[in-house]
Amino acid sequence: MLMEPKETAGQERFGTLTSSYYRGAHGIILVYDVTRRETFTNLSEFWAKEVELYSTNQECIKVLVGNKVDRDSERAVTQEEGMALAQQLKCSFLECSARTRANVHQCFKDLVLKILEVPTLLEKGSTAVKKQILQQKQVRKPPKSITCCFQ
């Protein structure tokens, strides 16, 4: 999930870290609030460009998510606008509600299934996971026990 720029509370120093979030990512979920047009605008004008700039994995799966559909009476961004942006960004589209949990599970399930459909992502992911597990085992490896026999 991506933060809106103002969520860093004006601490632009975090901007240097954002590029590392995208490097090697297999999946990215871009989220906007359907009740706040500025989140949709920021996503299309800032965050989507940032993903394109910093994502090192050309086969990365992207999902555009409109959140807060439980507040339909306050909607400022239509479903059609979301679908059009998703098409423009060449990514999947889904609307959900974190409060009611509507489609939240489906969002992550769709992302994982799409990642699994891309053999190179699965292969790279397997290698990375295996390396990470091996490194963790080496760090946790208990010291060799000294065997001694007292009779």
Automatic annotation (TrEMBL):
The family database entries (Gene3D superfamilies) matched by this protein are listed as: P-loop containing nucleotide triphosphate hydrolases
Record-level Gene Ontology MF annotations: GTP binding; GTPase activity
Any keyword Nucleotide-binding?
yes
Cited Pfam families: Ras
Q: Name one GO cellular component term.
A: endomembrane system
Q: SUPFAM superfamilies of this UniProt entry?
A: P-loop containing nucleoside triphosphate hydrolases
Q: Where in the cell is it found?
A: Endomembrane system
Highest taxon listed in the record's lineage: Eukaryota
Q: Which UniProt keywords apply?
A: GTP-binding, Nucleotide-binding
The way this protein sits in the membrane is described as: Lipid-anchor
Keyword hit for Ligase:
no
Primary site of residence = membrane
Family according to the record: Belongs to the small GTPase superfamily. Rab family.
Protein's recorded name: Ras-related protein RABC2a-like
Species in which this protein is naturally found: Gossypium anomalum
